[in-house]
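Quick one - first record:
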Amino acid sequence: MSKLKPVSYHELVKRLRGLDFEGPYGGGKQLYMLKGNLRITIPNPHKKEIGVDLLMRILR
């Protein structure tokens, strides 16, 4: 069983910044964050809670 639980949009951004990601930046319909050449799309334009399934896909 997964130990992940849903997180808010702001909490995800805060934790990614703690891992040295920059952003979020606007780019078309979705926001993204950068760390060197790595780009992570944050598909949550309404800034609601991010579910476990979506969180697992973002982290992969």
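second record:
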Amino acid sequence: MRTVVVLNQDQMGHGDRELGQRILATFLRKAIALDGLDAIVLYNSGVRLLAQDSPVRTELTLLAERGVDLVPCGTCVQQFGLDIAPAKVSDMDTILRELGAAQKVITL
């Protein structure tokens, strides 16, 4: 089943930021087990997760190396002035295609 995870903020859940980042790291380490995980779409403050100093950069890089597409919003990356290498900056058309092709979308 084609699955897409949406990260629209730089932590998991609302509330304590440190806790949110810690549980997001755990989620991403275990996410490779999701059936058919094809892509992770990142927008708004979620694109900060691809920054050099991101607490989950390693987890996202490992997922990308295992074939999960990282799809960050280009407008958002520009807004925050980020360098998100190795991910390729995307656009809303690509984000819409990813979401439209998904059989399951998980928004965190």
